[in-house]
Amino acid sequence: MAIEFHDLPKELNSNELIKQINTFIKQKGGVIDKLSISFVKREIMAAVHQQFLDNYETDTMTFNYGTIDNIISEVFISPWFVKRSAEALGVPYRDELLRVVGHGVLHSMGYKDYSEKEKERMRILEDEFINLIQSSENNS
């Protein structure tokens, strides 16, 4: 069971994030084999996105190689894009970072967001993920 971060932004605490990702996934019945979350520059995210999907920019991409019973996944997050989204939405950057991390974790667990119903479900679960982290921090 391994979670690793690459270039984690200073706004996030790796130990707390690992603990809460594990808790969240266990609550949903998942088991982590390997979950890698990389925070990458805008240019790298654009190149990866163009190679595997299309030309538009995005905040996160998840490559899921496992199942909920055996999560093996790579998540790429663009802090530049997340910051731009946070400003546009009028929310704190850290909160939007947590939402996007949660979004990647959910994709790693097999959740999709193609339909409006799936997007609504993802949003509810993202909020649950953020609340889990924030309540843990408040109790520390």
User: What's the number of structural domains?
Assistant: 1
Beta-strand share of residues: 15-25%
The number of strands is 4
> What spatial form do the alpha-carbon principal axes imply?
globular
The sequence of SSEs as H and E is EHEHEEHHH
Give the CATH architecture.
3-Layer(aba) Sandwich
For the record, the CATH class is Alpha Beta
Number of helices: 5
Overall mean confidence score, pLDDT? 92
Tell me the CATH topology. Answer: Collagenase (Catalytic Domain)
Helix content: 40-55%
Radius of gyration: 14 Å
Classified in CATH, the superfamily is: Metalloproteases ("zincins"), catalytic domain
Judged by helices, strands and strand pairing, the structural class is alpha/beta
What does the largest sheet look like? 4 strands, mixed
Low-confidence stretches: none
Terminal Cα span: 24 Å
Q: What strand order characterises the main sheet?
A: 1-2-4-3
Please explain how this structure is put together.
The protein is α/β, with parallel strands linked by helices and 140 residues long. It has a single domain, classed as Collagenase (Catalytic Domain) (3-Layer(aba) Sandwich), CATH 3.40.390. The protein is 54% helix and 18% strand. It is built from 5 helices and 4 strands; from the N terminus they run βαβαββααα. It has a 4-stranded mixed β-sheet. Helix 1 packs across helix 5 and helix 3 packs across helix 4. The longest helix has 23 residues. It is globular and about 40 Å long. The protein starts with a strand and ends with a helix. The model has no long low-confidence stretch (mean pLDDT 92).
